[in-house]
Recover the amino acids of this structure.
């Protein structure tokens, strides 16, 4: 076998790996913004394969008069340029979509983002479809008709695709940013282009200009790789400060130097972003009105934490979520559980609240992401916020998959707390499934309780004319959660919301000051005769509206479930420091939800037939919940 044939096999292997890596990078970049990972990976691979077919069909019409190896060089250079930029182009498409949304072109913004994403997928697939037939033709020419070697080139292509597909999730994603991956893969691609040009081109005297082009592309990609951190920060700021980044077309391309950098940590499972708080409006000022003690007064610098771009918590407001999560179930339980299982909650905030109960003798904590545990223990701000809860001798932290743990454990617990991310993908949906809850029910004591974060149940809720919060069951996934838990054997299933009271004097006082400031801002610079001040009724109406919006913005949803049937929960006070008192416990449950007597199987979320996620795949992810 000649050296040139071996070279062809090697080039085929590498460029095939590059092509599949570009597509996986595109799928990952799109799904980070759109969610629905399984859907967008599937769509990406489908469009990619279809585009390869189109590329193969048009192979002879592209650079028709160019010698084969030089034609392959041209294709590989174009692929290198496009592939190196795909992550940045997807991020830029998001920024442009946000700008369109600021112009109230919401549907156009969504259509534009997905059109650009699919166009990029098609372009990479089209070019990849040209390169494989070219390699086969060059290989057969080199073999001088002895025998056709198309099958071997196809084999090298398939093995290269396998290598790329394995490298992406195991080596590249946990350790590198999307922009770094793009540049590194593109560098390998352009190096192969230069190898083809220098080793296989028949007309050496016509290659000078292509060599120069190849070297320029190589230099640009190396420069981009060394600047990838700055590029990543540029687009991270566009994502998290999107309200400012999309306020004008020019702002899309501004460097936003005045905005603080985002601290980004990668793990094999997720991207963890830690950043300084963003000020949105009244809620930032109202939140302190509801706290009668400073639970985290050691924190000097407040932070917000996001997982894969989704809001996780902010240190200055997380106590509403975590205290309602921990203390409301305790408040309706006569006895404090002795043995507690916590699934998820790697930040340690929920465990911080549970440790306030001296009666709890043991907390088994199961978290999939060891990097999150490490941050919760060692990050100066997060460890201060969780009061070093994961270092407590009562806490036994196990790095494991929660599904695997509850399936295999033989232990029984008095209480089980489940704190998982929003089921935005089918892979997360499995820990909201009937199968999962069946194993959870099996390791729960007969008189114990399960409490879980139930994302979306309280979404789209609003106040009625009587001032009562009414959920929108048609738009929320309440029926999916309810019937899934019921099908797993739970007899008592009761939702509650982290509702704060509207009639809070401190909140009304602060809201009144904010309304006055807003009104003064509106009338700033106007002549006195043109100023129409608010009537007393209008002012109080705006104050109430502001406080209600704040209450709804903090209304996260939870579900308590038990094996036995309990019709009425009594309220029991325990001697712990918390913002949750009897009034707020009653308010948390004072939201009417429909409960069917029989299981409706069309709502049951199963691994074999998922009904979650509950939202459209045609959506753009935003980092914050804003009411």
């Amino acid at each position: 076998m000649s050296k040139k044939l071996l070279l062809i096999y090697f080039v085929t292997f590498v460029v095939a790996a590059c092509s599949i890596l570009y597509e996986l990078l595109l799928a990952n970049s799109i799904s980070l913004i759109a969610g629905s990972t399984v859907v967008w990976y599937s769509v990406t691979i489908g469009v990619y394969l279809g585009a390869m077919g189109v590329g193969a069909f048009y192979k002879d019409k592209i650079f028709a008069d160019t010698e084969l190896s030089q034609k392959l060089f041209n294709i590989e250079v174009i692929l290198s340029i496009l592939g190196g930029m795909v992550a940045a182009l997807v991020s830029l498409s998001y920024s442009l979509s946000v700008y369109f949304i600021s112009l109230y072109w919401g549907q156009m913004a969504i259509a534009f983002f997905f059109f650009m994403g699919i166009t990029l997928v098609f372009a990479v697939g089209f070019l990849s479809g040209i390169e494989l037939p070219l390699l086969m033709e060059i290989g057969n020419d080199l073999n001088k008709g002895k025998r056709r070697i198309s099958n071997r080139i196809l084999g090298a292509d398939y093995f290269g695709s396998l290598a790329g597909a394995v490298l992406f999730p195991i080596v590249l994603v946990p350790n590198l940013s999307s922009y770094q991956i793009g540049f590194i893969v593109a560098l390998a691609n352009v190096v192969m282009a230069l190898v083809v040009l220098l080793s296989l081109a028949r007309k050496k005297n016509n290659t000078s200009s292509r060599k120069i082009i190849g070297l320029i592309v190589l230099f640009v990609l190396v420069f981009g790789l060394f600047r990838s951190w700055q590029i990543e920060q540029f687009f991270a700021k566009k994502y998290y400060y999107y309200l400012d980044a999309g306020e004008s077309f020019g702002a899309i391309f501004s460097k936003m130097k005045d905005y603080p950098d985002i601290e980004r940590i990668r793990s094999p499972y997720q991207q963890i972003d830690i950043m300084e708080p963003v000020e949105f409006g009244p809620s930032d000022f109202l939140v302190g009105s509801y706290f009668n003690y400073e639970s985290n007064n050691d924190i000097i610098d407040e932070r917000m934490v996001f997982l894969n771009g989704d809001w996780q918590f902010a240190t200055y407001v997380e106590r509403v979520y975590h205290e309602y999560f921990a203390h409301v179930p305790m408040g309706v339980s006569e006895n404090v559980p002795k043995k507690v299982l916590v699934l998820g909650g790697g930040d340690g905030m929920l465990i911080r609240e549970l440790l306030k109960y001296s009666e709890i003798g043991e907390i088994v904590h199961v978290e999939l992401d060891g990097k999150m545990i490490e941050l919760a223990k060692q990050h100066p701000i997060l460890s201060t916020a969780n009061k070093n809860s994961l270092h407590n001798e009562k806490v036994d932290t196990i790095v494991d998959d929660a599904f695997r743990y509850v399936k295999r454990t033989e232990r029984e617990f008095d209480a089980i707390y489940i704190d998982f991310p929003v089921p935005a993908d089918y892979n997360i949906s499995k820990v909201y499934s009937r199968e999962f809850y069946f194993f959870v029910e099996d390791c729960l004591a007969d008189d114990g309780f399960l409490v879980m974060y139930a994302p979306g149940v309280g979404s789209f809720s609003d106040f009625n004319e009587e001032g009562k919060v009414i959920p929108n069951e048609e738009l929320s996934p309440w029926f999916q959660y309810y019937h899934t838990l019921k099908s797993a054997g739970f007899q008592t299933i009761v939702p509650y919301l982290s509702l704060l009271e509207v009639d809070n004097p401190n909140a009304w006082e602060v809201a009144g000051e904010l309304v006055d400031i807003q009104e003064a801002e509106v009338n700033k610079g106007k002549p006195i005769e043109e100023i129409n001040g608010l009537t007393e009724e209008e002012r109080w109406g705006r104050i109430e509206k502001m406080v209600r919006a704040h209450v709804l913005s903090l209304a996260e949803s939870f579900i308590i479930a038990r094996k036995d049937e309990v019709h009425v929960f009594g309220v029991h006070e325990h001697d712990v420091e918390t913002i949750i008192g009897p009034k707020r416990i009653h308010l948390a449950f004072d939201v009417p939800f429909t409960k069917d007597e029989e299981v409706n199987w069309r709502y049951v979320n199963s691994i074999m037939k998922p009904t979650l996620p509950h939202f459209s795949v045609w959506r753009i992810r935003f980092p914050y919940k804003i009411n």
